[in-house]
Amino acid sequence: MATVFIPTQWRDLTGAIDQVPVEGQSLAQVIAAIEARFPGIRARVLDGEQIAAGLAVSIDGRVNARGLLASVQPTSEIHFLPAIGGG
Q: Does residue 45 fall inside a structural domain?
């Protein structure tokens, strides 16, 4: 199963869990699986049917440019990288 690392700001939805094993062959499937377990995650990841502005997704150390169609392997590590605000 792929491992999804939950950003600190989202752990209120996961009961402080920081890593979640998830099945899925695409990023869309992974997000759907996380949402089924932790409702509210999808709203933080997506804006409609696209990755939310100000959020990058890294799969196996590479920032994903394919959006929800990105392939996920059983051993993949997925990181959601929210933009950092401030000056």
A: yes
Per-residue pLDDT, 10: 94
| Residues 5 and 78: beta-carbon distance below 8 Å | yes
How many domains does the chain divide into?
1
Evaluate whether residue 83 is within a structural domain.
no
Side-chain-side CA neighbours of 79 within 13 Å: the count stands at 9
Tokens of 4: 């999804």
For residue 11, what is the DSSP state? H
Nearest of 81, 76, 84 to residue 2 by alpha carbon: 76
CA 79-9-19 angle, to 5 degrees, is: 45
Residue-wise pLDDT tens digits, 44-62:
999 999 999 999 999 999 9
